[in-house]
From TrEMBL:
Stated name of the protein: Cytochrome c oxidase subunit III
PROSITE patterns registered for this protein in UniProt: COX3
UniProt similarity note: Belongs to the cytochrome c oxidase subunit 3 family.
Residues of the Heme-copper oxidase subunit III family profile domain: 29-271
Ranges annotated as spanning the membrane: 29-55, 91-115, 127-145, 166-185, 205-229, 250-268
Subcellular location: Cell membrane
UniProt superkingdom: Archaea
Alphabetical keyword list: Cell membrane, Membrane, Transmembrane, Transmembrane helix
MF terms in GO: cytochrome-c oxidase activity
GO CC annotations on file: plasma membrane
Topology class, membrane: Multi-pass membrane protein
Organism of origin: Halorubrum lacusprofundi (strain ATCC 49239 / DSM 5036 / JCM 8891 / ACAM 34)
InterPro entries the record matches: Cyt_c/ubiquinol_Oxase_su3, Cyt_c_oxidase-like_su3, Cyt_c_oxidase_su3-like_sf, Cyt_c_oxidase_su3_a-hlx
Length: 271
């Protein structure tokens, strides 16, 4: 397998024509089919989840491997040459994803502001408030993670140094795990003191917002893990080919921005 790899930065062997885009893939069909059965399972019967979840995971795994590893090592046209409006299509796709996710989070913030305006400030009488220093700690951790992610990105983009990339992104993953541990500690205290997701609209909105952010963070950890694997094990990325490094960093900065908003409007704003 190692003999078939193409080192980062070598001229591509495929896709040098006018189009330069990779071949079609079968995996989007599995991703779409998996989502269809998962939807049926959530709306109708859990039995459909038995089909939908494995199909979805297979599609995501195959599509990710095909795009991030196989195409890279076969010498398919570099990501930087696939552009739309002067921006790499992969990076543009990440920006579009971030914008759509911001709209989702904005809906939860609007719901929180509505509750504050119609039901009075959080927390409701008889229930615990949020711990500001824990919120500040979590936000500080993600800010630190943004710095380590930037360190890793600059190392490979400007210096072609994969070892520093792995170090910076591994530190970011460790910081993300620590964030989740602090959040779990916060939740355990709130649950012990009686604030649950079933405790009226405030409880439901807080846990939905914080849980949505935590879920996105876990997805970010997976994304960073893929980058680390590719750089450490497959010898991917260089000053010429580093699209996934930059998209992962952009996603982490988005997570940091959401954490700052949660701290300002949810933690600090309710004290």
């Amino acid at each position: 397998m190692s003999d078939s790899r193409q080192p980062a930065g070598e001229p591509v062997r495929q896709g040098e024509g006018a189009d330069g885009f990779p071949h079609g893939s079968k995996y989007p069909l599995f991703v779409g089919g998996g989502l269809f059965f998962i939807g049926l399972g959530l709306a109708w019967s859990w039995l459909f989840l038995i089909i939908g979840i494995p199909v979805e995971l297979y599609g995501l795994w195959g599509w990710t491997r095909e795009y991030t590893i196989e195409e890279f090592e076969r010498g398919v046209v570099p990501e930087q040459k696939r552009q739309l409006l002067g921006v790499e299509t992969g990076l543009l796709g990440m920006y579009m994803l971030i914008v759509s996710e911001i709209l989702i989070f904005a809906g939860f913030f609007v719901a929180w502001f509505y509750l504050d305006a119609t039901r009075g400030p959080f927390p409701p009488d008889g229930y615990p408030g949020l711990t500001v220093w824990l919120g500040a700690t979590m936000t500080g951790l993600l800010l630190l993670g943004s710095l380590t992610a930037r360190y890793g990105r600059i190392a490979v983009v400007e210096e072609g140094d994969r070892s520093k990339l792995v170090l910076g992104y591994a530190m970011t993953v460790g910081i993300g795990v620590l964030f989740l541990a602090v959040l779990a500690f916060e939740w355990s205290n709130l649950l012990a003191e009686g604030l649950r997701w079933t405790t009226g609209p405030y409880g439901a909105t807080y846990y939905a917002l914080a849980g949505l952010h935590a879920g996105h963070l876990i997805a970010g950890l997976v994304l960073f893990g893929i980058v680390i694997y590719r750089a450490r094990v497959r010898d991917h990325f260089s000053a010429n080919r580093n699209l996934m490094v930059r998209t992962a960093e952009a996603y982490w900065h988005f997570l940091t921005a959401i954490s700052i908003a949660i701290f300002i409007f949810i933690y600090f704003g309710t004290t």
